[in-house]
Amino acid sequence: MNSMNQAKKQNFNSLYPIILFCFLAVSAFLLFWNLGGYSLWDDESMISLAAQGVLQSGDTSVVHGQNIVAFREGILLKDLHDRSTPPLSAYLAALPIGLLGTSSFAARLPFAVIGFALMIGFAFCAWKDRLRSSTILVIAIAILGNVSLMLFLRQARYYAPTVLLSVIISYLYLKPCWDRRKAIWMSALLVLLFCASYLNCVALISCLVVDYLFRGRRENPIRTGLLWKVMGLSFLGFLVIAMIWNPFSCKYGSYVHSVTLWERYRFFLLSFRDMDAARFMVGGLMLVSVIVAALKRDTWLWRGLIAVVVYTFTISLLSPQVTTVSLFADIRYLVPLIPVFIALDVRTLLLLFGRRRVLLVIVAFLCFWTNLLYAPSLIKKEHRFLTLDYLRELLHPIQEPYRPVADWINAHLSEGNTIWVLPDYMAYPLMYHAPKAVYAWQLNEGQRSERQFNKLPPIHFKGLEMPDYIIVFGPQVKQILQMIEEYKAKGVQYKEVDVIDAYWRDVFRPELFWRSFRTIEGYDLETDAVYVFKLIASPIR
To answer: Which pTM value belongs to this model?
Structure first.
């Protein structure tokens, strides 16, 4: 009997290379297929425009010919440079944009490569640590079934670097034995994480400190000298970066201070609801994890659960989001928790079904590839098989608004024609994909007296010079039509020259509660399309 069991075990473990190869092949498809299929959305485009600034000047300049990138009236700017956004993402995007041109594919490529490096790292560690084939298979099912993880890793934003760096730092921290080499690596990686995202770096450090105080110092103590070395080198690196890119050196700092404690508390509560809605975690299985951790007194489950709470609390405490004007928490800051949730979910299943391998795999599929344990999806009866929805969308991309509008601009406008885009954040994808136009009215008239803006052309200040075109995405067209009527009294006349038949929202963003895997149809052409108005008469020139 023992020999038969050993033969079965050896047989099962012979699946190692097949499982890992299939995992890497499928993850590569999910990360790279149709990577440039959609235009960049607003946050991606601002990173990519900053990357163009890096190519032009070596720094995150926001001046691009006649255009500037002045998000929220220049809240991120100091001396016409982005001094608020951590710089790593812009520098990562600069090389492929320089080599391959201004395409969505070029902008997203380095981040998808980093995401794939995460998958390779898992495969390498699984092989090195000789995990059981059933364990590897369950982890692979969990990772490939986490559509949110794949979507975020494909974006031209800081998500992929923060996830990879957070995983490596956590792995090094948990690895036994501290020496000088490990201390230097930890410091360097923490500085890189700070370059990618200040918030995520502080949140991870908070988790490491709490874990070390309550558990780590007993299991894997760090010599005082090495601890000071890690802290000193890291702080020195943070200081060098903060001397250049510092949100408190521009208006963004005061915006962060304006968020009240009530809003931070609300962010904390909403975060768990919305992480479940976005399928960062399997909500029902997380509740089971708490029960299993209590009943089995599992140290790893408790450490992971505490890390989730500490990380979310830290982000909530420091987040700039004003939750009173948003229905959802800004869960993009919580993306590095996805691997933690996957680890917790998998460990819970292994503790419950570890010896019944076939049942374990079946339950894993039900948990990670269906909506069986997701309360929001069950109630709404949507996305029953989200991974299949995602696969279908990769093969047949949905309609999006930026590409037809950018094509219209490139086909109908001359170099230097001016456009006012509404909502304002939707100007930046067009600025990247249709740079021949000048994107007007990003600043208020009163800002012309500010030193960094006083040499800019009048078209950048609202009301000083009328734009040649107004492009309106969606329902805001009602306010614009009213404004056009009011301008007629001043001799300013605009005429509607086109309606671009595309649903106005960018429903291909990575947050699942804002994403659609099918083209939006049957929308109201009067309010939910894209509208183009042309200036035909104006005394203000």
So the answer is: 0.93
